[in-house]
Amino acid sequence: MPLQRHHKILIGSFSTIVIIFMISTSVFLYLLFVKTNVNYSMLNQKIDSIEKDTNSKITDLSEGLIKTNNLIGSELGSLSKELDLLKASAGEDFSGIIEFAVESVVTIRTNSGQGTGFIINENGYIVTNAHVLSDSSGNLASGIRAITSDGNARTADFVGYDGELDIAVLKISGTWDALEFDDSNDVSVGEKVIAIGNPLGLQFSVSQGIVSAIHRTGSNGLVAYIQTDAALNPGNSGGPLINTEGKVIGINNFKIGGGENLGFALESNYIVKTVNKISQ
């Protein structure tokens, strides 16, 4: 039986609706696919950005940790030294101060005798007493050697001297820890001091005492000496007299033989001026 006209219209309308639905569905699915791809691409970009930012922050954090560790190590070293200074000033313990100072003290030996000196410059310049370098005739002795705290004997070159203040300057090769000078005008009677030297050949010996007087007159007529009761013996000449901060306030020079614990050290301000004069 042939289809009636209204049946054909109904079937055509249904087919059109189905086709439109299929096209709409296809377009929707395509748009959904495109949007998903775009979101996926944006998500990957965000992940890459987060990874880069995270890696950068991890790098910064690592560098910060390294700097912090270095700073902590430096601060701990500084704190340790400050504690040593505090102990010394409180009269509890000089060992920390001595440990630092002894590294810059040397034993001076010549073909005629021996004494002490100390390094005042990282380039190896040494201060000692001029009489330590003299032979029995009053001339410059030969074979001058400096024995450092590591036990090695090194050839020491003679730089110059000042006979009036009994100061001489030597130099050894290499890079060294140096002692620092303090202002001798700030030295007070009664403050604690340490003498480091080579008494009677006993290398790097230490004696403790106080400042008994300041601005004493020496045999040269100069009011330039610190009097101390720290024990000084032959071989101590040229060694440093240091305070509780580990700084040099004088160079041990002589003692009065008729009394007990009457030692004298040339004040540090005179040493500095004399060394500068010799260097020039």
Structure description:
The chain has a 7-stranded antiparallel sheet with strand order 5-4-1-2-3-7-6, with helices on one face. Strands 8-9-10-13-12-11 form a 6-stranded antiparallel β-barrel. It has 280 residues and is of the alpha+beta class. It has helices at residues 5-89, 95-102, 268-279; strands at residues 105-109, 114-119, 125-129, 145-147, 153-155, 157-162, 167-171, 192-197, 205-217, 223-228, 240-242, 248-255, 263-267. It is rod-shaped and about 150 Å long. The model has no long low-confidence stretch (mean pLDDT 81). The chain contains 3 helices and 13 strands. It has 3 domains: 1-92; 98-171, Thrombin, subunit H (Beta Barrel), CATH 2.40.10; 184-279, Thrombin, subunit H (Beta Barrel), CATH 2.40.10.10.
Overall pLDDT: 81
Q: What proportion strand? A: 25-35%
* Largest β sheet strand count, sense and barrel closure: 7 strands, antiparallel
- Helical content class: 25-40%
Counted up, domains total 3
Helix and strand topology:
Blueprint: H1 5-89, H2 95-102, E1 105-109, E2 114-119, E3 125-129, E4 145-147, E5 153-155, E6 157-162, E7 167-171, E8 192-197, E9 205-217, E10 223-228, E11 240-242, E12 248-255, E13 263-267, H3 268-279
Antiparallel strand pairs: 1-2, 1-4, 2-3, 3-7, 4-5, 6-7, 8-9, 8-11, 9-10, 10-13, 11-12, 12-13
In short:
This protein is an alpha+beta fold.
Labels describing this entry:
280 residues; alpha+beta; Thrombin, subunit H; 3 domains; 6-stranded antiparallel β-barrel
